[in-house]
């Protein structure tokens, strides 16, 4: 029993110590900032480039392009309306299928 520590432990109430300035974490900043909660969207110029490249390549509908790159038609609709949140995988598929180089 010599390996056990039988010293007495005393718990005391925590004293109020003034806090130093602490950098807020990102989650706390986001929780406190309700006005600027917006994701980056596809620009209207990129949306127009995608639409023009689709028509030029011979895809008469957004659904045809969606089937060609294996995504839902709504995704192509969001990209052409400028309301989509940029996804590099989808943009890469669009570049490859449309033989077009555009950037976010």
SSE order and pairing:
Blueprint: H1 26-32, H2 44-57, H3 62-69, H4 73-81, H5 88-98
Summarize the structure.
The protein is an all-alpha fold. The chain is built from 5 helices and no strands.
Give an overview in words.
The protein is mainly α. It has a domain at 44-98: 434 Repressor (Amino-terminal Domain), CATH 1.10.260. The protein has 5 helices and no strands. 11% of the residues are buried. The mean pLDDT is 83.
CATH topology of one domain: 434 Repressor (Amino-terminal Domain)
Q: Return the string of H and E elements.
A: HHHHH
Mean pLDDT figure: 83
The radius of gyration computed from the alpha-carbon positions, rounded to a whole number of angstroms, is: 27 Å
Which CATH first-tier class of one domain would you pick? Mainly Alpha
Strand content: under 5%
**In this structure, how is the largest beta sheet organized?**
none
- In the CATH hierarchy, the architecture of one domain is Orthogonal Bundle
Task: Give structural attributes.
single chain; 104 residues; mainly alpha; 434 Repressor (Amino-terminal Domain); 5 helices
């Amino acid at each position: 029993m010599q390996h056990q520590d039988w010293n007495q432990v005393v718990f005391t109430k925590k004293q109020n110590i003034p806090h130093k300035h602490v950098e807020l974490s990102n989650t706390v900043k986001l929780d406190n900032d309700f006005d600027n909660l917006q994701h980056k969207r596809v620009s209207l110029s990129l949306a127009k480039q995608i639409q023009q490249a689709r028509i030029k390549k011979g895809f008469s509908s957004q659904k045809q392009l969606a089937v060609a790159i294996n995504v839902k038609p709504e995704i192509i609709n969001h990209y052409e309306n400028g309301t989509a949140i940029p996804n590099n995988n989808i943009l890469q598929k669009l570049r490859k299928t449309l033989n077009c180089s555009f950037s976010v």
